[in-house]
């Protein structure tokens, strides 16, 4: 088996604690062999931008409006401009549910901001001062929005909202909580040699995830995808299917014998004469077939 003898491996990972916040982080890692810094920096950057989960508004419904090329009486901005503002709302979706509904209802003249969104405790607005629309005299607005988890950028036509009202307008959505990433490579010393790489990376988030957690998630994604290349002969572990507890319970009930039902003697004899042994066999019978029994 090949071993990477003599290859220098990184032993240092430091975050700049002086300027660290929930929105910004700067890390330095090394030492790396010459050229490795760019390779690893590019891999992390791509994963950070494309694969970190976030939340965004995916569709919006305006009361009395049926398409985005409309205007709302008493509202300064038209629907298209309001949707553009909604795309900039940064959200954090907690809990186990994949999507939530949030609302805006206002009639008081003035600017309506992201902080005016009504939602339950699982939805956190990260930029509450973002202006969304302006209500003029005698204006009124009522909106319903769907917030969903996702990764990367998803165009409006890819959102699954077929079962929603025809008034629900799908939106392009950027789910990534990562706003910006830069990195560069510096020379660092190992022994007497100074031609090794040190990776310096800066990243800005919208507050939905800390920079440390974002880097850790991205590194794990890279590691998981590279694992299969380590041993070609090993079979990958089979993916365990998710168990639908409701379906399992239903199947168990269907397998029960009709004897377990609290039926009258006459009803039970009718089922036995029709050679119906289980609940599954019973529910497959039509009304006409049951009348014949």
Detailed description of the structure:
With 293 residues, this protein is α+β, with helices and mostly antiparallel strands. The protein has three domains: 12-52 and 177-229, 2-Layer Sandwich (Gyrase A, domain 2), CATH 3.30.1360.10; 54-173, DNA-directed RNA polymerase, insert domain (RNA Polymerase Alpha Subunit, Chain A, domain 2); 245-292, Orthogonal Bundle (DNA polymerase, domain 1). The protein has helices at 36-51, 79-86, 211-226, 245-254, 265-273, 279-283, 287-292; strands spanning 12-15, 24-32, 53-62, 91-93, 99-106, 110-113, 123-125, 131-135, 141-151, 153-154, 168-170, 173-174, 178-190, 193-205. The strands form five sheets. Strands 1-2-14-13 form a four-stranded antiparallel β-sheet, with helices on one face. A four-stranded antiparallel β-sheet has the order 5-9-3-11, with no helix packed on it. A two-stranded antiparallel sheet has the order 4-7. β1 (12-15) and β2 form a beta hairpin. α1 (36-51) crosses α3 (211-226). The model has no long low-confidence stretch (mean pLDDT 88).
């Amino acid at each position: 088996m090949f071993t990477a003898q003599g290859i220098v491996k990184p032993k240092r990972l430091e975050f700049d604690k002086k300027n660290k916040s929930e929105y910004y982080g700067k890390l330095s890692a090394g030492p790396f062999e010459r050229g490795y810094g760019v390779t690893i920096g590019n891999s992390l950057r791509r994963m950070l931008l494309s694969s970190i989960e976030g939340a965004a508004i995916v569709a919006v419904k305006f009361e009395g409006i049926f398409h985005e090329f409309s205007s709302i009486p008493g509202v300064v901005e038209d629907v298209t401009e309001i949707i553009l503002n909604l795309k900039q709302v940064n959200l954090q979706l907690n809990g186990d549910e994949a999507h939530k509904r949030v609302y805006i209802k206002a009639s008081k003249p003035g600017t309506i901001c992201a902080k005016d969104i009504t939602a339950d405790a699982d939805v956190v607005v990260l930029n509450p001062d973002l202006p969304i629309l302006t209500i003029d005299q005698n204006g009124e607005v009522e909106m319903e929005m769907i917030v969903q988890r996702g990764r990367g950028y998803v165009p409006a036509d890819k959102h699954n909202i077929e079962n929603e009202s025809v008034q629900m307008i799908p939106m392009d959505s950027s789910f990534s909580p990562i706003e910006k990433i830069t990195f560069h490579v510096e020379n660092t010393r190992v022994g007497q040699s100074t031609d090794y790489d040190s990776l310096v990376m800066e990243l800005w988030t919208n507050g939905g995830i800390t920079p440390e957690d974002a880097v850790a998630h991205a590194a794990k994604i890279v590691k998981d995808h590279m694992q299969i290349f380590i041993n070609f002969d090993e079979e990958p572990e089979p993916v365990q299917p998710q168990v639908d507890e409701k379906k399992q319970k239903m199947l168990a009930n269907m397998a029960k014998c009709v004897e377990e039902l609290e039926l009258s003697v006459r009803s039970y004899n009718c089922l036995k004469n029709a050679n119906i042994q289980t609940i599954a066999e019973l529910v497959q019978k039509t009304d006409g077939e049951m009348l014949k029994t």
